[in-house]
Design goal:
Length: 132
């Protein structure tokens, strides 16, 4: 039953539809065309086929995994938490990473500069100052 319906559409209805279409033979004929509504189904199908054809070449949307901030630091933990006692600071200034790219995490190694240049981001370190 289903195959008979599809065969009828392809063999009978589609050729009859295409014969009735007012397809102009010149560009001037397209400009003067007034029966645009009759062409809409055909143009819609052609647009859909064109989109399906070029879709593999379009840029892909970022997947959820691509939007992760922390790509490598303590990924086995459900939440990364670092606790630092301010009294234990040995120097007057200490910089801590906020971009998650530092190889010396949680201490900043200025990896954010490369990250900012690549992405246009503006992240910087958290600086703790010890006042004596």
């Amino acid at each position: 039953m289903m195959l008979e319906s599809i065969a009828r559409i392809i063999k009978i209805q589609l050729p009859a539809y295409l014969k009735k279409l007012p397809l102009p033979e010149t560009i001037r004929g397209f400009v003067r065309l007034t029966e645009w509504l009759q062409l809409l189904p055909l143009l819609g199908i052609l647009a859909l086929l064109g989109y399906i054809t070029i879709r593999p070449f379009l840029p892909k949307k970022k997947q959820q995994k691509d939007s992760l901030i922390n790509l490598k630091i303590q990924n086995e933990n459900p939440e990364v938490v670092n606790e630092i006692d301010i009294e234990d600071l040995k120097s007057t200034n200490v910089c801590y990473c906020r971009c998650w790219r530092s190889k010396t995490f949680p201490v900043c190694d200025e990896s954010h500069e490369k990250h900012n240049k690549l992405t246009g981001d503006n992240v910087g370190p958290l600086i703790l100052k010890k006042i004596r």
